[in-house]
Design a protein that fits this description.
The chain is built from 12 helices and 10 strands. By secondary structure, the protein is α/β, with parallel strands linked by helices. The strands form 3 sheets. Strands 6-7-8-9-10 form a 5-stranded parallel β-sheet. It has a 3-stranded parallel β-sheet with strand order 1-2-5. The longest helix is centred in the last third of the chain and has 15 residues. The structure holds zinc ion.
Length: 273
């Protein structure tokens, strides 16, 4: 099955903190196999298409206090070279960008199709009032917000900030904004994320970074909430291949409809494809 990958990162070793890059290098077969050829977006498109990926969200990561400074310009540039493949998401930081909302609006005008927030890397709670202008901008533009929600091994991150319960406020205050919980609460909060996805119309789960064979263990109601779950990989920061992960989801024993929703249809709807 062709998949839409809701969660990939650009190959930008020089824009990552050295420890972040070392960690990615240590786990990624894609980096070991392709190395600096991944600098070429056309090459990356070929690699991902060979793994069954039809379209991919590519995420900026501006987290100067922790993981790196991959600015939105980087992903807009990548998308400019592969318009029919990459869907760029912006990243701004309310702690270090003087006018994060103004900056975000400019990125959305320039072609960004969503926002990635990193509460545990940028060090704020998702319901912090300083973040609200970012939600307003995304709600007005009709684009989703993807948020890191779960554990992290990156130095300096503070996991307390991504407790999903803080998204309850955001979901209520921005009823027309799509909020996607990347990593589904990895490590601590699977049940909270599943409840929120089941009961809040605008909250979704992205299963990136979870061993796909164990998804039904983490989310016993996966079939029932399959209209609220999207597939993502964290490529190239993943220990397997995108294809292997997608195939593991196909082996979970879900209905064919649920598989299609998770691997492709929900993402197509949320991204307006
Ligand atoms: Zn990621």
């Amino acid at each position: 099955m062709k998949v839409i990958d809701f969660h990939t990162h650009p190959y930008r070793p020089d824009e990552l903190a050295p420890a972040t890059w070392q960690w990615i290098k240590s786990i990624s077969p894609a980096v070991a196999q392709h190395g600096n050829r991944l600098n070429d977006p056309h090459y990356v498109v070929d690699v991902l298409r060979a793994e069954g990926v039809e379209r991919a969200v590519v995420l900026a990561e501006h987290c100067p206090q922790t993981s790196g400074t991959v600015r939105t310009e980087s992903v807009l540039e990548i998308r400019a070279q592969a318009l029919d493949f990459f869907i760029p998401f912006a990243s701004v930081d309310v702690n270090t960008d003087a006018d994060a909302a103004g900056m975000l609006r400019r990125y959305l005008d320039a072609g960004a199709r969503g926002l990635k927030l990193y509460p545990s890397y940028q060090l704020y709670y998702p319901n912090d009032e300083r973040v609200y202008p970012l939600y307003e901008a995304c709600q007005a533009a009709g684009v989703p917000v993807l948020m890191h929600i779960g554990s992290s091994v990156i130095a300096g991150t503070r996991i307390k900030y991504c407790d999903p319960i803080h998204l309850d406020d955001v979901a209520v205050d921005f009823p027309d904004l799509v909020l996607v919980m990347a990593h589904g609460g990895r490590g601590f909060w699977y049940d909270v994320c599943a409840f929120l996805a089941a009961h809040k119309p605008n909250l979704y789960i992205d299963v990136t970074g979870l061993p796909p064979a164990r998804l039904r263990e983490y989310f016993p109601d996966l079939e029932r909430i399959s209209h609220k779950v999207v597939f993502g990989s964290d490529w190239p920061a993943m220990p397997k291949s995108v294809r292997q992960n997608a195939e593991a989801i196909e082996r979970l024993g879900l209905s064919p409809e649920a598989q299609r929703r998770i691997l492709r249809e929900n993402a197509a709807r949320l991204l307006g494809l």
